[in-house]
Each structure stands twice: as structure tokens, then as C-alpha cells.
Amino acid sequence: MSRIIAGAAGGNPLKSVPGDATRPTTDRVKEALFSRLESWDIISGARVLDLFAGSGALGLETASRGARQVTLVEKAPKAVAVCQQNAALVNKVLKNETVNVHRGSVDSVLDLYFDESTGQPRKTFDVIFMDPPYPLTEAELETTLAKAARILAEDATLVIERSSRSPEPSWPASIELIASKKYGETQLWFAEPVQAD
């Protein structure tokens, strides 16, 4: 049973997506991940995008810990339903519509946030989580990563969670790897926008 670890909604259980199409982030990995993000002081007041959200656990954790706005992106109908139930629970605890769920493919949602005609983002995010399904190819991940990089705020952090057997992602020129950590079967990569000199 997954749960919210800390913050206003800490201790509340989260519904899990039935079946084995999604793999929830373990509490151990989640605690380590959020310990690092909190030490960087980037969650409070953040605009958060949780891509390939599954049950929405990562985005919901940020909402509980003070994120200003959280969008969960998921396309699988069962996962969307679970995201909506979990978001409703956290919003109720927070007495605010902090979390919203966007049903659709990750790439199509990322395209919505970027204006191709001006080359500018329509909206930017301070934290983006990407926990892609294992079948996603490296080329597909590279495309999605390039789209996500375009909508990162200036001091944003992008976190990728993958199998520890997966190769390091190919980073677009606009973002750089700042840290990585392996936890058993899980590997986390942390990246941020390249700062202009």
C-alpha cells in the first residue's frame, strides 16, 4: 500500500493502479528522492508536472509538502481513474484544488505547453518527474525529454526514474545532469537547465 509520506496529507493511503502495467515508486526511493528535493528547497510553492504519473504518488507527495500547483499526466484509463481518486483525497485534505489530472499522452500534453509559432513555453514548471514505462525506447525517451526541457523554469529540477539496468538518458543540450543515485532496481537522475554565462 502506497502512502503520502510527509506534509499536510502525510500518512494518507493512496490507491494503487490494478494490474502490473505500472510500477509504483517504493517508499524507500520516495523518501530518498524527497529528502534530496527538500534539501534543495524547491518543493514549497513549486509548479509540478508528474509525467507517466501512474497512481500520481510523486506529484501528490509534492502537493502534500507545499507545492503550489501539481499536474498529473497519464493516458491509461485505469491509472487516470486512480489519479483522479488520489488527487481528490489530497485536494480535500489541503482544502484546495492544488492537484489536477490531465488525461492524454505525455508528448501531446508537453506540446500543449509550448507555442511552436513563438518558440516560447505557454507555461513553465519548477519540478518535472518522468517515470516512463519500461517498454519506452531510448529514442522515444529522448524525444519526450527534449519536449520537457523546453518548459522547465529557470531554476527547475527534472527527475527521471528508470530501471537501474537502463542506460543514462540522452540529455538535450539545454539541460545537464547534476546528480544520479541507484537504489536497488531503481535509478534516479536529476537534471537542471544549463545556466547561461
UniProtKB/TrEMBL annotation:
The keyword Cytoplasm does not apply. One of its GO terms (molecular function) is nucleic acid binding. SUPFAM superfamilies: S-adenosyl-L-methionine-dependent methyltransferases. InterPro entries: DNA_methylase_N6_adenine_CS, RNA_MeTrfase_RsmD, SAM-dependent_MTases_sf. Signal peptide: none annotated. GO terms for biological process: rRNA methylation. It holds the Pfam family Cons_hypoth95. It comes from the Bacteria. Keywords: Methyltransferase, Transferase. PANTHER family: METHYLTRANSFERASE. This is Methyltransferase. It comes from Glutamicibacter uratoxydans.
